[in-house]
Each structure stands twice: as C-alpha cells, then as structure tokens.
Design brief:
Helix content is about 40%, strand content about 20%. By secondary structure, the chain is of the alpha+beta class. The protein has a four-stranded antiparallel sheet, with helices on one face. A hairpin with a 2-residue loop joins strand 2 and strand 3. About 5% of the residues have low confidence.
C-alpha cells in the first residue's frame, strides 16, 4: 500500500487515480490522513490531474484548522492503493530516526494504535450517522443552480474543462446536464446545472473550486438560482 513518490509526476498520477472514486484519502470527512499526504506534496498538482488538484485545493482550505481534524498521521506507506510502495523521499528520514531510537517506538507505539483505533471508530460512527440522516425523510433545503463557466479562449479544451468541473465531488452536490453556449469570436462557455443542499454547499465554495482549474477556467458566474 502506498502512493509512490508524491514529489514526482508518477506519484501524483497514482494519487489522481486513487482520488477519482473518493473525496478523501480515508473515510468520509477530512482527516489527518489528508493532512499527511497534503504535506508530502511540495506544490499543487497540474491541471490535467483534476481529481488530485480538486482534493489538494479542498484540503488547503482546512490549513488553519488542520490540527483539529480527526485521526492521527500514519506513515505514507499506509495510505493509497494496495501494491504501490511509498517512495516519497521525505519518508526515509523518518524511518532513520525511528531506527536510531527503539525506545521511542515502544514508548509511543501503543498510544498511536489506540488513537488510530479511536479515529477509525469515529469515522465509522460519522459514516453511520450520515447514512441514517440520509434515510430520514427530513426536510432538506435544496437549490437548483445553473452555472456559466467561461474558458480563456477558443483553444481551451472544453471537454477537459467539463471533466475538471465534474471531478468536484462533495456531500450535498449533484451535477446535472450541461451544454456549450457560444459567446462570440468562436469562444463557447460551459453551462452546467447542479442541485445542492443549502446547508452543505454554497456558490462560494463552487466558485473557489471551479476557478482553481486556472489553466482552463477564466471565470464562473451564477446564471440562475432557484429554491427547490
């Protein structure tokens, strides 16, 4: 298990593929697992790795509160898909420090295991709570939003732009139909609809994450906003 060398293009590709079907490194909420992997990446992933970039920008927004996120940091080799070893350079010195002081391993190992178990239990309870909440026929305020996403010019790959937009996944967000609308001079904008739960997703977070794909997106506007 691992993510390869996160300081290389190949490692970031592994991370992008790993995040194509999940929102976080572990579980259903941001945790110390995300912090550990985030801190191993020296700079934002390139725009063509849209899943990794979406996750990177999302976790970056938690930097002021990262110490309060649940869970405990584990070695990078304990995150990611099976069969991929961790080879990120920064992981090597940590192993050397551990080898130099066996007493530290014995002293803190059990506490770390207990904290990890507590984090797993917390994540399981959060998932169970979310599942129960989703089944309840409670009144959930929702809105239908139509977004205009504008490219830089007529040479922008609009298929890739839409792929990047749809890679944004979060609880309370469902993407709908889309179409390309001419705006002039051969340029077309992406018009895409979505349904959001008002308590979970706002237009500000959508704009922040969509415009983060700055190689493709010039700007984003709300074309229509209707309560459901």
């Amino acid at each position: 298990m691992g993510l390869g060398d996160l300081k290389s293009a190949s490692g970031l590709k592994v991370l992008n593929d790993f995040l194509s079907e999940r929102s976080y490194i572990e579980g259903y909420v941001p945790s110390q697992a995300d912090v550990a992997v985030f801190e191993a990446i020296p700079s934002p992933p390139p725009a063509d790795l849209c899943h990794a970039l979406r996750w990177y920008n999302h976790i970056k927004s938690y930097q002021s509160q990262k110490s309060s996120l649940p869970g405990v940091k584990k070695p990078l080799g304990q995150y990611g898909p099976a069969g991929v070893p961790d080879s990120t350079p920064s992981s090597a010195p940590a192993s050397k420090v551990d080898d130099d002081d066996d007493d530290d391993i014995d002293l803190f190992g059990s506490d770390e295991e207990e904290d990890a178990e507590a984090a797993r239990l917390k994540e399981a309870r959060l998932a169970e709570y979310a599942a129960k909440k989703a089944k309840k026929p409670a009144l959930i305020a929702k809105s239908s939003i139509l977004l205009d996403v504008k490219p830089w010019d007529d040479e922008t790959d609009m298929a890739k732009l839409e792929e990047c937009v749809r890679s944004i996944q979060m609880d309370g967000l469902v993407w709908g139909q889309s179409k390309l609308v001419p705006v002039g001079y051969g340029i077309k904008k992406l018009q895409i609809g979505c349904v959001v739960e008002d308590d979970k997703v706002g237009t500000d977070i959508l704009e922040e994450q969509i415009t983060a794909f700055e190689d493709f997106v010039q700007s984003m506007d709300v074309a229509a906003f209707n309560k459901i």
